[in-house]
Amino acid sequence: MRDLQQHTIRHQVLAVIVVFLVPLTAVVIWSASRTLAERERELLDQAGSVATTSAAYLNQYLDGIDSLAAVLVRHPAVRGLESNECDRLFADLVRGHPIILNVTLTTPDGAWHGAAVRPAVERAAQPPPYVGQVVSTGQSVVSELMIGSGGKPAAVVLAYPVRGDAGPVAGVLGIALNLSQLQIVFASIPLPEGSVVTLFDRSGRVLARSRDAERYIGTRLSEQVVEPKDAPRTTTRKGIDGIERIFGNSLIDRGPWLLSVGIPVDVASMRTQSLWRRNVIILVVILGMMILAILWFARHISQELDRLRLAARRIADGDLTPPARSRVPSLEFANLQDSFITMAENVREARASLDRQVGEERKIRETLQSLQRQVVRQERLAAVGLLVSGVAHELNNPLQAILGTSELIERRPGLDPEVLEEVSFIKTQSGRAREIIRNLSRFSSQQTGPPTLVDLRDVISEVVQLRRRDLQNAGIALDVDVSSVRPAQANFTEIEQVTLNFVINAQQAVESANRKDGRILIRLFDQGKKVRLEVLDNGPGVRPEDEAKLFQPFFTTKPVGKGTGLGLSVSYGIIESYGGLIGHRPNEWGGATFFFELPAAGVNVPA
Predict the structure, then answer these.
(1) 423-435: per-residue pLDDT in tens?
(2) Closest C-alpha among 544, 529, 520 to residue 594
(3) pTM for this predicted structure
(4) Per-domain residue ranges for the chain?
(5) CATH number of the structural domain 452-599
(6) Within 13 Å and on the Cβ side, how many CA atoms surround 412?
């Protein structure tokens, strides 16, 4: 996101479009895969339905053969085993049925008594197996696959018993079906290109096939034989020709045989491709139109933003003439243009107002200087706290005793010069201490008024006016951040002393670090039920070993003559007297932050 902020709107729009295309492409691919899976399921259902339909067609055809056989076994020539008459009857029958390969009539011993196509011998050395099955059971049977030789097609024989007048089986009527022509039964069933209908016997050999019948009839599907009744309704596998197909299976009870209809898996892909191609074309057209529309809109937005940027640069260079109104692409830009024009007019009026204020500031400069002198006096008073009044009284009497005793000792005759020198040193230091106490007593005798509602913003304003010039001369920037409007119950002069003491200490800390980019920040904000004032600087900060002694009387880190060490101690007493909190912490600039908190007026503070 941070990298995008460094590019134009057009580049950002293109990046968003690219990011949008990634999940969109994933959704399209997922949809295509789902569609392909649905088409494959449809093919499974279609293959199962077609297999059921094809089985019905085949059963109907076999039922027709059964009806034909029922008529033939009742024909007098067949029942009488009249060879010549049967030959003519069977030949006429075969000419009208292309699937029927031959019709024969044999006796139980294998002698021929009629055939549409006569065999080379009149009596077989051993009758076909189906003859014995019909004679023994007295019912119709279906023979095993009979593979022809010498160019003869493969066939299966439907054998029916022929009974004489006495009732026992006198002959066997055999109707041989040409398996290579059996696909005629399924010719009317609509199937996709490449589909195949295959008929298997119970041993898994191909009996009939709608494609390349001559090549595959008699071929075994696999070594693992599955009973036709146990075959699944639908399955997907490779056929005997190596093509992967979706197969639907149906049971033919006559054999029992398994009728399998295979539809190539590629049909699902082909059906999906047309839908996929149409959807992709629609998607590309829509995306193209969207991209063109977004780029067109982004271009107009960029032009309007450039125009406003140039107008802002002109105003920054000093030309405060409001820009002319123009047509914009949206209501938001119209409102932005109006706001920009209003801003330019207000800035121009503000500059004129500032010019007028410059003259007024000259008039109040003398007043500010007078206020500054008053603050200096208050700063001297801030150096003396509640501790000073008690210390001055308690120390004055012992110092008088020390001075008196020193004078008496000094008057004694015969004292050693070194002793006189030490006594003189004691008198000198005692006098200095007495003078300090006298000054402190004089400073502490100044009394302030009772507590009132104090607006800390006014306190900050007074301190800023007093110290701004000194800070400017020292090359230190002073900033103010005020976000609280709640007053506090205190004495204005005392709170001003505390704030001024913080600012002076911050200035001296910055100057001691010799920083070229000195900075002080006065910050006022709400802290729960209290109002908090902070003074931050980018000086060297407070050393860890000095933190515990900051608010102790007479402790100072300043050079001799720069401070008495009473400023923070007095400030501590003032804030504590109002039930507030005063403290120190390091800040992010590497310097120190001194702060105090006072209860906001109207907020109950627990004792």
Answers:
(1) 887 877 676 566 5
(2) 520
(3) 0.45
(4) 386-444, 452-599
(5) 3.30.565.10
(6) 12
